[in-house]
Design a protein that fits this description.
Elements lengths: L3 H16 L5 H13 L2 E2 L1 H8 L5 H12 L3 E4 L9 E4 L2 H6 L13 H15 L5 E3 L2 H11 L12 E4 L6 E4 L6 E4 L4 E7 L6 H14 L4 E9 L6 H12 L5 H19 L7 H9 L3 H11 L13 H8 L2 E8 L14
Length: 341
């Protein structure tokens, strides 16, 4: 159903290619998962995936990766303050058809820690088939939603340029999406990386249109320990953005207001009149800032999320859910840098 088995076959084929390099089946599956979702791992993650204790087996696997130049060891601090391993060699990524995967490149250490958290989120739910790349997500959801004649610009995206020169970045948040096609159930992830909810609200607006078309889905918000005090703010943002629809007239007023503001920026001498100033006062706050941000990046359905009651109905019927998951594991001494990249 919906290419579920095809994705499993792809992962199996990718793992088989790595086994040709001398890795065991478990090692190959682990490396395939790492390269698709994070590019980095810590030893405990391999031990957990492979079902082995910390010791000679995990040491030999990691030593081989580093000795052959397939991964590099990163020690963020003093010798005993932890280490992680960055799988970076182009040949490994090429073997699984992802030679240009961004995970090959070094990133700020705080971003690497965030990727370790996302890898844990994937490893924590092995019942799901997890999609990591833009290509896999796009192919899957365009097939899944073909009955609705879904087009690429209706998927979560950022748009650059306009007209014939417009380009789309689909699924720009680069977060794992889990599918359980036999149950027609989906898990979307969001990693909290800062106290402000602005990016989260825009993420919700971008996904609104697609979520309405799914039968059962959950948004899993991952909350690192340093940002645990922000959980309530994120709960409020979620409720306000998705579960408090306004009227159709509000949507029309908002679109008019956004057009007026855009015109004021582009036309010298144009100023907002009394009606626009009144509307700006009425529609102020983080909720409407997120809507305008999405609207300005050519998310055509952004304003419609204000008056569409479809998602709220899904929550009432139990088809949709949100859960906040504390990320309490040890992430080296860099955990305090989450959100500073």
């Amino acid at each position: 159903m919906y290419e579920h088995l095809n994705f499993q076959d792809v992962v199996a084929a990718q793992s088989h290619c790595l086994q040709g390099e001398g890795f065991t089946e478990r090692q190959a599956r682990f490396l395939t998962t790492v390269m698709a979702h994070s590019g980095v791992f810590v030893e405990r993650q391999y031990c957990r995936f492979a079902g082995v204790a910390h010791g000679q087996k995990s040491h030999d696997f990691i030593h081989r990766l580093v000795a052959k130049g397939l991964a590099r060891e990163e020690r963020p601090g003093r010798l005993h303050h932890g280490r992680y391993f960055h799988v970076h060699h182009k040949r490994l990524y090429a073997l699984i058809g992802q030679a240009n995967n961004r995970h090959r490149r070094r990133a700020p250490r705080s971003r690497m820690v965030e990727r370790l958290m996302l890898l844990d989120a994937v490893l924590d739910d092995r019942d799901m088939v997890w999609l990591g790349t833009e290509a896999d997500k796009t192919r899957y959801f365009l097939t899944r939603l073909a009955e609705y004649r879904f087009r690429p610009h209706e998927l979560p995206h950022l748009a650059f340029g306009s007209g014939a020169r417009q380009t789309l970045r689909l699924f720009p948040d680069k977060l794992p999406i889990g599918i359980h096609a036999l149950e027609d159930r989906y898990v979307f992830t969001y990693l909290v990386t800062r106290a402000s909810t602005a990016d989260f609200r825009t993420f919700l607006v971008r996904h609104h249109h697609m979520w309405r078309m799914l039968n059962r889905w959950t948004l899993r918000v991952l909350v690192p320990t340093p940002l645990a005090t922000s959980t309530q703010a994120y709960r409020h943002a979620f409720q306000e953005q998705l579960r408090q629809p306004l009227g159709l007239s509000d949507g029309k007023d908002l679109e008019w207001l956004f057009e007026q503001r855009k015109r004021a920026e582009q036309e010298p001498g144009f100023t907002l009149d009394a009606r626009a100033r009144e509307a700006a006062d009425r529609y102020r706050g983080p909720r409407f800032e997120a809507l305008e941000t999405a609207w300005r990046t050519h998310v055509a359905y952004a304003v419609a999320t204000v008056y569409c009651n479809g998602l709220n109905d899904q929550f009432v019927r139990g088809q949709a859910a949100v859960e906040f998951v504390p990320m309490t594991r040890q992430y080296l001494h860099l955990a305090h840098l989450v959100g500073t990249a």
